[in-house]
Amino acid sequence: MTAPEAAPATNFIQNIITEDLAANKNGGRVMTRFPPEPNGFLHIGHAKSICLNFGLARDNAGVCNLRFDDTNPATEETRYTEAIQEDVRWLGFDFDGRLYYASDYFGRLHDYAVELIRLGKAYVCSLTADQIREYRGTLTEPGKNSPYRDRSVEENLDLFARMRAGEFDEGAHVLRAKIDMASPNFNLRDPPIYRIRKREHHRTGGAWCIYPMYDFAHGLSDSIEGVTHSICTLEFEDHRPLYDWFLESLATPCRPQQIEFARLNLTYTVMSKRKLLQLVNEGLVEGWDDPRMLTLSGLRRRGYTPGAIRNFCQLIGVSKNDSWIEMSTLELCIREDLNENASRAMAVLRPLKVILDNYPEGGVEELDAPNHPLHPELGTRKVPFSREIYIEQDDFMEDPPKGFFRLAPGREVRLRFAYFIRCVSVVKDEATGAIKELHCTYDSATRGGDAPDGRKVKGTLHWVSAEHAPKATVRLYDRLFSAEHPDAGGDDFKAHLNPNSKETLTDCRVEPSLAGAAPGSRYQFERQGYFCADSVDSAPGAPVFNRVVTLKDSWAKIQGKGSG
Ligand code: ATP
Ligand code: MG
Prior knowledge:
7-stranded mixed sheet
């Protein structure tokens, strides 16, 4: 049912499930669910939850549902439900036949609310929102009972029916659970369970004008579906007594167990959908799938693979303690994947023309270049070589400092898969002094990259043949934020956007095999990094590549971490 993974995960939730299975709890069934609210696109934090929930189902012969928690008509949209389904499938998980919506249960949830009223466990409260807050008390002081708390069952039933019929304005009444205004746990101080919202719902349209609150809808939806283990993040730990209270108070078909784990916090990004939505709405990125966004659609477009993200989720593990994961860990996962799986190619991002004075005019050779150094079975490709080539501008220095082993006047270097060349002169623009082109000679005896006389060169450069190299656009993406914790301490996270997170180069030259790169195909550009043909903007003949990740961690040095 799901993507194959190396070994079943071991974590404290798996241990609970193992014990439950041994005790034949739930008749030996395991059912989990992934319950996104369709109010935005999924991000890398959701990937942790998806891998956990679908992974536990897979490892325990169970099933995992995808359930939209669509109880707030003000923020939810159908296009989000579509994007979320696409992302879950892309990540490698299959929910066919198990796609649910909390809104499908609105009828049953309403009936449960009526049942609570009948049991004397819920009442219609007519305090204003501000008054409700005031009556709730503080951490040190108990709350006060609402003056409406002792309404009769009949009066409550009548008022709730009229709330449903649309007789009242938003905020005029709410239905509250009658629990304990003196509870040390705020969540048990008569929490609201139904409110009036005169909004069209993306699925139920105008059928309802009262909507259930998350805490009420969630556990009951779990129970309606037959979920056995309801796994959520730590901030819901204090809600667990309420989750249990609803299930105990009502004759529900089953008794799911809520288990909390620590959410993923990742450096150099913000994680909440609300903040990601701000970036989109304020035009600070180019949409939810901007390749700099840590959304699953952004990562996909950037060139991340589902396997790399699953490996990342496996690597970071599951625990009860909040912690921060380094962005470099995620980058390492994609780097390892692409090192193994991406074809090699040559692309010159900032071209400098080199003329080989002693190479025959009009001559062309086809040189063999391996597609993958670790996998000879992937074969070779032909790379044309001719009298005029391009190299990278920064592979040449007129006055090189110590330690620069690339091309310089009088110096010899190797062209990858080709010949040794030696620089004989530099042509400059008379007006600006900028370097226009280099004249070099090549040594025909060094074809393939070695000199028969055994002489060595220190540098090897990538290159393309000028006449044969199509133009390409390359976007050098970097981290979207330059601060490790952009939203720490109430900071305005938008003040920490990295001004250099995207650099677009429109004059790149690539080897001919890249001209028709299929959208979404990934390469290692030799010496440059890993790149992916953009799935939206790239077209055969006019390729556009996104940098997925550099070859090495360039941020480690900046932070003084690692060896760089
Ligand atoms: P956000 O604040 O980003 O909107 P959310 O928790 O409100 O996150 P939901 O759509 O309600 O988003 O989340 C669906 C599921 O994904 C929930 O079970 C939630 O616990 C889980 N989830 C959300 N963010 C993370 C995270 N950073 N790490 C792990 N799980 C997460
Ligand atoms: Mg939410």
